[in-house]
Specification:
The chain has a single domain (3-59), classed as Rubredoxin-like. With 60 residues, the chain is of the alpha+beta class. The chain has one helix at residues 40-59; strands at residues 3-4, 13-17, 20-25, 30-31, 38-39.
């Protein structure tokens, strides 16, 4: 599973300890929740949605 940060789109480090996983972005220096982390496969869908949202805002 290759995850990227939703804010900077850089790879996320997965930290495993005592059966738990934390997701950390070294670029943003912050923890990222698993629900916000983007899989590389989902990244293209995320970028298309972002473009659609911006075009809708500019049309309004």
């Amino acid at each position: 599973m290759n995850l990227v940060c939703p804010d900077c789109l850089k790879p996320i480090e997965i930290i495993k300890a005592c059966g738990c996983r934390d997701y950390f972005c070294n670029h943003c220096n912050q923890l990222v929740s698993k629900s916000r982390a983007l899989d590389i496969d989902e990244l293209s869908n995320y970028q298309e949605k972002e473009v659609d949202d911006k075009s809708t805002e500019s049309a309004a």
